[in-house]
Design a protein that fits this description.
Blueprint lengths: L2 E8 L5 E7 L3 H10 L2 E8 L14 H16 L4 H11 L3 H15 L4 H6 L7 H13 L2 H55 L8 H15 L1 H20 L1 H11 L5 H23 L3 H11 L3 H15 L4 H5 L7 H13 L2 H51 L1 H5 L6
Antiparallel strand pairs: 1-2, 1-3
Helix pairs in contact: 2-3, 2-7, 3-4, 6-7, 6-11, 7-8, 7-11, 7-16, 9-10, 11-12, 11-16, 12-13, 15-16
Length: 405
């Protein structure tokens, strides 16, 4: 239940009191204070409790389950409060349980379901709230929630595919770096000590590796600090407006990975646009939400510019066609959808097509990365081993060097 901070004046003595009060709604809090003969001067919801999601994050899988089950319960004829109470009791995520209880209390106190969800922006984003609001106004809440659950499931599936594809190469790269550092710090110095007794010039690869080992041992802490500082600095830079714009512009131009990143943004754009249009949200509000959720600053700027053209009377496809970040295929599909009055269905097909392309590209990338990683490990680790054994292969030349005439 929300907590309200209030300043009230005693009706009898005129003395002012500042304190807090738990109540389902602001009106209920004011009524409770009036019953105590306190005249409310000011009252506001305590920020620390204005959305219990601030205490933690909600996994997307939990949000999908909540949305799907709520849609089923409402479609079956259960009341909203009863459905929320049941979902709060059965969820195992404490943060999610607190959020559902708070939403239930607000709905029970007279708030709309969408207004109650809006109090928890870290759990229910603007897309979620707007679709629920459209469903409430149109009397199609169960249907809208089912569509929203499908949208979230598709989003979760796409994220899982990308993470699965990147997990293997990331793990192998980390292991390779760890082995390389171990060889440089622990193994190479042993060989260097043995070779130092030869009193002869070592092969160039072996000498380079020994020098590199000495450098890493001497400056190991500084190297780690430098790498850590570089990573921290880069992450801090891309959080800035200029840095994020630079990274979003650069990453979609990268070979292979850039195509995947671009398609992921386009798939999110088309699926979100289709879901909101189908739910009956006004088009300018739709584009505003899509701009905030597309995940790319360059695409967001293009959408904002298109909104101005649409306000002046242009069609969606024509307004978006002015920006090269949107491929011709998507523009033509949207044009056909506008002409037939089925733009949401066209966008849904485009999103499905992009998802299939992303999956195909990721599968091909995974198949390509495996042999590349094997070659990488062979060159790096194998090269170090060969460099260390080269003096042994040339033992006779090192111990008894040829005399100069």
């Amino acid at each position: 239940m929300p907590t309200y901070t209030y300043l009230a004046r005693d009706a009898a003595s005129g003395r002012e009191t500042r304190s807090t009060l738990d109540a389902a709604t602001e009106q209920a809090a004011i009524a409770a204070l009036l019953n105590r003969n306190l005249l409310v001067v000011s009252i506001e919801e305590k920020l620390a409790r204005k959305g219990k999601s601030s205490g933690g994050t909600i996994p997307l899988a939990d949000l999908v389950v909540f949305t799907r089950q709520l849609a089923t319960m409402i479609d079956a004829g259960l009341a909203m409060v009863q459905s929320l109470q049941a979902l709060a009791e059965q969820t195992s995520n404490k943060v999610m349980r607190d959020v559902i209880k708070d939403v239930c209390a607000r709905v029970e106190g007279g708030d709309n379901f969408s207004a109650a969800l809006q109090k928890h922006p870290k759990v229910f984003n603007r897309l979620y709230v707007c679709m629920v609001d459209a469903g409430e106004k149109g009397g199609l809440l169960a249907e809208i929630l089912a569509r929203l659950a499908t949208y979230l499931e598709n989003t979760a599936r796409l994220r899982k595919k990308v993470k699965s594809a990147m997990m293997y190469p990331t793990a192998v790269t980390v292991v390779a770096i760890g082995i390389t550092i171990f060889l440089l710090v622990k193994v190479v110095p042993v060989f260097a000590e043995i070779f130092s007794g030869f009193g002869a010039q070592l092969p160039a690869p072996t000498q380079f590796l020994i020098d590199l080992s000495k450098f890493v041992q001497k400056y190991f802490i500084y190297i780690i600090m430098g790498l850590g500082g570089s990573v921290y600095g880069w992450l801090a830079y891309i959080k800035t407006k200029q840095g994020r714009e630079f990274w979003d512009r650069t990453r979609i131009k990268l070979p292979i990975f850039g195509q995947i990143a671009h398609k992921i943004c386009l798939a999110r754009f088309t699926r979100t646009l289709a879901s909101l249009i189908r739910s009956g949200v006004p088009i300018l509000e739709v584009l505003n939400i899509v701009g905030n959720t597309c995940g790319n600053v360059i695409m967001e700027k293009a959408i904002r510019a298109a909104m101005g053209d649409i306000e002046r009377g242009e069609g969606i496809s024509n307004a978006l066609s002015k920006h090269p970040i949107f491929p011709v295929m998507i523009i033509r599909m949207m044009t056909a959808g506008e002409q037939t009055g089925k733009i949401d269905a066209m966008l849904e097909r485009v999103a499905d097509f992009l998802d299939e392309e992303i999956e195909t590209t990721l599968s091909g990338l995974t198949s390509l990365i495996e042999p590349l990683l094997i070659v990488f490990l062979g060159v790096v680790i194998g090269g170090m081993v060969v460099a260390m054994f080269m003096p042994i292969f040339k033992m006779s030349d090192i111990i008894n060097p040829p005399r100069k005439r």
